[in-house]
Amino acid sequence: MSLESSLENATKVYQKLQKDLTNAVENLQKLDSQLQENEIVQKEFNLLKDDSNIYKLVGPVLIKQEKVEATENVGRRLDLIRSDIKRVDDQIKDLTEKLEKKKIEIVQLNASLTQQETKS
């Protein structure tokens, strides 16, 4: 494989990694927003009395829900969101490392190509 095609392939992989990283960062931002919203709901639930009425929106209808059940649902949702945030954080770290390695490879290929053209 020629240096030009190697450089072209490495550049394509680099661009794909950049796109994947951008998507992962956007996912992380959405998850952070969901986490904040659910933490606010949890704090509000903590302020309520045990006999308070809680309603859950299901489609166009409000359905009465027990405080214990609603609190547990929010707690489970928070756990799920936190585990998703950890997974996406790990994915971002992995993609960042791959991007750095690919960047170094591209620089080396560019240097080799320039050196080869200089010799010609």
Automatic annotation (TrEMBL):
Entry GO MF terms: protein-folding chaperone binding; unfolded protein binding
Keywords from the UniProt entry: Chaperone, Coiled coil
Superkingdom to which the source organism belongs: Eukaryota
InterPro entries named among the record's database cross-references: PFD_beta-like, Prefoldin
Entries under PANTHER family matching the protein: PREFOLDIN SUBUNIT 6 (PTHR21431:SF0)
Family recorded in the similarity comment: Belongs to the prefoldin subunit beta family.
Coiled-coil positions: 7-38, 78-119
CC terms in the record's Gene Ontology section: cytoplasm; prefoldin complex
Name of the protein in its database record: 2953_t:CDS:1
Pfam families reported in the protein's UniProt record: Prefoldin_2
GO biological process: chaperone-mediated protein complex assembly; protein folding
Organismal lineage: Eukaryota, Fungi, Fungi incertae sedis, Mucoromycota, Glomeromycotina
